[in-house]
Design a protein that fits this description.
mainly alpha, 77% helix, transmembrane helix, 2 helices, membrane, transmembrane
Length: 62
């Protein structure tokens, strides 16, 4: 397996977990980011991280 493919898979998994965390924050689960920001801002931050990781996965897998 090439190193670029490995990075793509890792970024894809990271994006999935970040998106899952954003969904959990939306549903009302407690998270440490809620100490710094409200629920909507925390969800947006995690969603942006997820999109960034999905983009990096796309770049490395194509």
């Amino acid at each position: 397996m090439r190193m670029q493919t490995l990075f793509g898979v890792l970024f894809l998994l990271g994006g999935i977990f970040q998106a899952f965390t954003a969904i959990l924050i939306y549903q009302g689960h407690k998270h440490y980011i809620l100490k710094f920001a409200n629920r909507k801002v925390g969800m947006i931050i995690y969603f942006i991280f997820a999109l960034l990781l999905f983009y990096l996965a796309y770049i490395n897998l194509v």
